[in-house]
Amino acid sequence: MKWQSFTNKQKIYIIAFTGIIIILLWSFFSAKLLTSGLNRKEISKGEDSQQAVVEGIILTETKDEEKYWEIYGDTGVYDSKQEVATLNGVLANFYKENQVSMSIRSSQGTYNAKEKTITLFDDTYLVIKDGLTLNADKLIWSGNDKPIFAYGNVIITKDEQFMANADEIEISADYEDIKIKGNTTSKIYGSKNGK
Known about the structure:
14% helix, 54% strand, lipopolysaccharide transport protein A fold, mainly beta
């Protein structure tokens, strides 16, 4: 068939159809070129699992409009299959009665959504509002109603009245009781005003 034998309407349809095909081919090849460097991380064990790498990640738990805790990481990775967030450069605040009751700084940490636990590793420093401070290699928090466990090179102080080094320390959920375990050195000081 010759081009002249087509009606003007047929010529418009042919030109439009050819234009659409060219645009679709251009879109397909452009998308392939743009996404060739991207790679979705998957863990292959039967089910899809995705990992998201995030800068400046904040995780928070609230219930009945009351905040229980918030944890911030400079960078973080979330594994959807394991339901675990791994954080670097961690700052965390824990709340009681809508006020910060405890703050923690650590080099690394994880939040396990299945077990509802926060584990902090490497250079972990904890401060409780009543003047209690703690340094440890590892710290585990499992909920506002459960004790806090600290492990490895633990140093705990209370104001200027008490200091202890230990392998392991357990702090009660209300922060009132402290159990010191393993190799321990404890020192109790009198107050400055003699009381």
